[in-house]
Amino acid sequence: MLSEAIPDPIICPICSRVIPESQKDAHHLIPKSKGGKSTEYLHRICHKQIHALFNENELAKILNTAESLRNHSDMQTFINWVKNKPDNFYERAAKSSRIKK
């Protein structure tokens, strides 16, 4: 009897938790509007938090790697909060007042 291979779990490069299929978002490391093409899978909540905190210019010029996002102090606060939540946890992210228009 052949068994189907179970794919390795995808780990979020922001919060280091396993990403369930229902919470998997593709994030353009450089926004598409700024010419970005490559994507990386993130937890939906991590992806939404990134776009709630940072504008497209910041993402394109400064925060265009998972490492630079993880190391930002605002993301550190978020990561410390979310890291103990269940893998399928989701909550809406409020847009940061500094980037609201």
UniProtKB/TrEMBL annotation:
Residues 12-52 form the HNH domain. It comes from Candidatus Methylopumilus universalis. The keyword Nuclease applies. It comes from the Bacteria. This is HNH endonuclease. InterPro entries: HNH, HNH_nuc. GO terms for molecular function: endonuclease activity; nucleic acid binding; zinc ion binding. Keywords: Endonuclease, Hydrolase, Nuclease.
